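Worked example 4.2. Below are the chains of a multi-component assembly; read each line carefully before continuing.
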Amino acid sequence: MSIEVRNVNKQFGAFRALNDINLDIHSGELVALLGPSGCGKTTLLRIIAGLETPDSGSIVFHGEDVSTRDVRDRNVGFVFQHYALFRHMTIFDNVAFGLRMKPKSERPDEATIARRVKELLEMVQLDWLGDRYPEQLSGGQRQRIALARALAVEPKILLLDEPFGALDAKVRKELRRWLARLHEEINLTSVFVTHDQEEAMEVADRIVVMNKGVIEQIGSPAEVYEHPANPFVYHFLGDANRLYMGEEHHILFRPHEISLSRNAADEHRPAEVRDIRPLGAITRVTLKVDGQEEPIEAEVAKDDASLVDLARGQTLYFKPKAGVPAHLS
Amino acid sequence: MSSLSVAAPLPTVARQAPKQWGRLTLIGAAWSVFAFFLLLPLVIVLTEALQAGVGTFFSAIFEPDALAALRLTLLAVAISVPLNVLFGVAAAWCVSKYEFRGKSILVTLIDLPFSVSPVIAGLVYVLLFGAQGLFGEWLLEHDIQIIFAVPGIVLATLFVTVPFVARELIPLMQEQGTQEEEAARLLGASGWQMFWHVTVPNIRWGLIYGVVLCTARAMGEFGAVSVVSGHIRGLTNTLPLHVEILYNEYNHVAAFSVASLLLALALVILLLKQWSESRINRLRHSGAEE
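Applying the procedure described above to all two chains together yields the following structure tokens:
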């Protein structure tokens, strides 16, 4: 089911949360709303769900305007950052909730509900937790239960608000890969909100970069990373080095877009090594360049020739590689 | 309550000065204050009541005027407590789930009966509904009696018990937020389904606690009720008023016998309170782990 957002505006008092937002999400897509906190991404997600009413503009599902439709009639699955599981119900009852709340004519009988809940719990690989309570589960388990609960009513659209935000780094990585696979398996249109560019790049088909209530750029992960529309997108999608080429003029380049050499070489500038950090597959070298306060960070493969016996205080020669987006500065 | 506030500072004191005698002195002081001010009066009420034997004790309790007073007290409780539950849940819902102008004023107003002397509350009702009151003439024309009748007693009881349920629920509901309710709506629950299946179970223990406190206050209220009651024996006397009348007539044994009836009701309520409080603490504790 496709989602269209048309000229949506939202104001909270004097704060403009969303400023004329237009967005098309295709059926079956997995889209990330990416931006810093306060950029309006969660508000947009809540408006799509119907939890928040826009001041103007409309939301269209599959060609049908749903702006005036109540939350409960939009049939969207929603996953909260802090899970929002019903604390007084068992895991089984949590997942069964949506089915049990259906009007009598549509409500399946208890045996069907039990079967369906079991399927869902198996899908999230937690079928052995049915009679526990939410407080007895870990964060990662709770989030998977929240997902199973949202999917129980077979929504056509799945909305996730910072779904992995409250989890630790390792669980986070596992869960987001699992979510991407799940999205492939069940035919859903999914939108998730995140402030973590790595998460957006790893999971999403398309990324919507937002800032201060407006959309800065929409594109595939490769597009927004390789061809950022403006300095904000460039900075938000990864670390950036600023290198001054004279009084006013400077260029931007990413830490890995660099060539290092121990000896003076063509077009390479000298710099003093301030810090060397092995980070696993790559090593980060912090360089101090004459004539600017801001250090330069270089990330190179850990077996890079320039790193052999390198120590702090030594001189290295560096050159930003081609593809420097100087036009952005 | 008062014993708690006396005992509360003890742990910090003990940590600062780990000397045994200091701790023991304070605990001893707390207990003697507790025994002198709270336990001793209870014992006296019971000994005085049973002074002339069990027979006199029961005849004082089962005397028609005493039974009428008991009935009236229970009636006032039966009317004011459900109304306060309704009001308390509605007010707590408004304050914790919506943002609106004048919210803090509303919360302050809810507390008003705590700060206003009950006697003044009673007088206000007399000024409003009494024969010389603001609505007095109109009420007289329509043959409705509020002051010196049961409606006045119920109104006065309502006034003094307004804060109990709301006060208990507001922090609880604010702490729980609105996400579970939102989740229920998203899963297709109607407003009522959401309320019964999600909100009520979450506030259950707080609600029971509020009801218990509210009941205790409604039964024991003296000042406000005394002003509006008119002390008509067998008609507008509640238990506390009946005790006062008996005492003023130097009928000490009967007064203390009826007082011990109130005492028994209070003890039941205290047990209920202890039980619901421990449930709330357990819920809060498990909530804090999240």
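Take a moment to check your reading of the output against the notes. Residues 1-10 of chain B have pLDDT under 50 and may be disordered. The interface with chain A takes residues 179-180, 182-190, 193, 197-198, 201-202, 204, 286-287, 289-290 of chain B (CB under 8 Å).
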